[in-house]
Design a protein that fits this description.
The structure is a single chain. This protein has 86 residues and is of the alpha+beta class. It has one domain. 53% of the residues lie in helices and 14% in strands. A two-stranded antiparallel sheet has the order 1-2. The longest helix has 24 residues, at 6-29. It is extended, with a radius of gyration of 17 Å. The model has no long low-confidence stretch (mean pLDDT 86).
């Protein structure tokens, strides 16, 4: 726990547990089996920390991401497997 005060620890614990549950669900539903044992730091640097640029052109919003084609295909497969509403 980050602090000696009960209230601060309770406030910290809720987002930490929620983040843990979301990452576990993401790994089990959308990612390949090789990512099941990945720690949050590895997931963060592989998926979430990607350099990119948002481009607004011709009434469209595009994301230009500096990644290899194989990684982008893996991301697209993960998005397709997520149970998103709508």
């Amino acid at each position: 726990m980050p602090c000696g005060r009960f209230g601060a620890n309770a406030a910290w614990l809720r987002p930490a547990v929620t983040t843990h549950n979301v990452l576990k669900a993401l790994k089990r539903t959308a990612l390949k089996p090789e990512w099941l044992r990945a720690r949050p730091k590895r997931l963060r640097f592989h998926f979430f920390h990607s350099p990119g640029k948002l481009i607004h052109h011709a009434r469209r919003l595009l994301a230009r991401v500096a990644r290899r084609a194989a990684e982008l295909i893996e991301w697209a497969e993960a998005w397709r497997l997520l149970p998103l509403p709508g």
